[in-house]
Amino acid sequence: MDVAVGTLPAPQAVDFMAEPTTQAVRPLDVIEVSVFGVEDLSLTVQVGADGVLDYPLAGEVPAAGMTTTQVSAELEDRLRSTYVRNPDVTSRIIERAEQLITVGGQIERPGRFPVEAPVTLLEALALGGGITPEANRRELLIFREVDGERYIGIYNVSGIQRGNYPDPMVYPNDIVMVGENEALARVQRVVGIVSSITSPLILLERVLR
């Protein structure tokens, strides 16, 4: 496990204000696919939790992160190698998967909360009703996966509130854990550290596939 002082890398950028045709497809999005002149292949399908779109004749398309224009182009390429001549495919997102963050540990109302855009760490804590009076304010973790790697940020809530360092951003799919918990104990056993009041600590560990 690597340890550094700094900031957590941001996940793949998502433009929440973008037009539907330029938004990146998310896992569990519902997509309407139309193939001009081929009614049997004009379907409404849901992207899998793993980000894969399973489509007749085209097989499994890794759609997550693509725009619908890119999905259409990929389907055209794949269908072209089947019996479909000169396929003309259009795709559009008709139902967006809900974006959630998880807040747990010593928090008044732990749970999963929908967000329309990234929020700050203090805002994420507020969604859960704030930390409990007995919570250890020096021990707060943010778990985030970026490009197949799991990062853990260790923060001090009091340090943020005092302006020792900026309030970090929390993105959809992040997990925030407050105070003493099994995850923090594991981190402490591995690296033998606790959160610093002057700067956050960032850990990197490989995600096992």
UniProtKB/TrEMBL annotation:
Gene3D superfamilies in alphabetical order: Outer membrane lipoprotein wza domain like, wza like domain
Domain Polysaccharide export protein N-terminal: 20-90
Keywords, alphabetical: Signal
GO molecular function: polysaccharide transmembrane transporter activity
Presence of keyword Nucleotide-binding: no
Domain Soluble ligand binding positions: 101-153
A Pfam entry, by short name: SLBB
Domain of life where this protein originates: Bacteria
Protein name: Polysaccharide export protein
UniProt source species: Aurantiacibacter aquimixticola
